[in-house]
Design a protein that fits this description.
The chain is mainly α. The chain is built from 9 helices and no strands. The chain folds into 2 domains: about 120 residues, Alpha Horseshoe (Serine Threonine Protein Phosphatase 5, Tetratricopeptide repeat), CATH 1.25.40; about 60 residues, no CATH class. About 80% of the residues lie in helices and about 0% in strands.
């Protein structure tokens, strides 16, 4: 009996240590990504992103059943797409979509549903057939799933609001912009500055509807 208890304890301790190891690696890479996004597009910025993609790819391989590394890798690729030519950007977006698909299959609630938010955004921001896979119905489906996971989040509310604005639904958009503006932010979170920027953009969008 004592041996069984020891084995169970050892398993739980190992799982906890592994989770901490993954979180630490992901957090370090995410922090570097956040800092780099504040710089202007340049060859140096591109090289940093490429190095971060390699780093997070190692984490993906080390933790194949975890959604978080997949989400961070997709985020870096999408940021790189902003600096790239249209042809290269579409390839990066397709890579990110594949990663997000897998992350959602593994754990749709990871990182407060951020994979669902991002998937929704790329579905309505990406051109439709025959150029790419853009689809407003799919976009709304993912964004509503994200809201179900995180109904009071900045990103989930802000991006659904921007989708509604694109659809011409200003009244509904105002409701979600208000939620985004009133969402509580954690100053200790790595993505605090990004969430803060989204909240500021929500304020501006809401003011423009007045």
């Amino acid at each position: 009996m004592k041996n069984l208890i020891f084995v169970v304890f050892l398993l739980l301790f190992t799982q906890s240590a592994v989770a901490r190891s993954m979180d630490e690696r992901v957090s370090k890479i995410e922090a570097s990504w956040v800092n780099t996004t504040e710089e202007k597009a340049s060859e140096e910025r591109e090289n940093i992103f490429l190095a971060l993609v390699n780093d997070i790819s190692d984490v993906v391989i080390a933790f194949p059943e975890q959604a978080e590394p997949l989400i961070i890798k997709s985020t870096i690729l999408l940021t790189m797409a902003k600096d790239a030519s249209s042809f290269v950007a579409l390839g990066l977006v397709n890579q990110a979509k594949a990663l997000l698909d897998k992350a959602i299959q593994l754990n749709p609630e990871a990182r407060q549903g951020s994979a669902l938010v991002t998937m929704g955004v790329i579905y309505y921001k990406t051109p439709g057939w025959p150029i790419a896979f853009g689809d407003d119905k799919e976009a709304e489906n993912y964004l509503l799933q994200a809201l179900a996971v995180n109904p009071n989040g900045v990103s989930s509310n802000y991006y659904y609001a921007t989708f509604l604005l694109d659809q011409g639904d200003k009244k509904q958009a105002a409701n979600y912009l208000t939620k985004a503006v009133n969402a509580k932010l954690d100053p200790n979170n790595i993505s605090f500055k990004i969430k803060q920027q989204q909240q500021q953009e929500a304020k501006l969008a809401l003011a423009s509807l007045s």
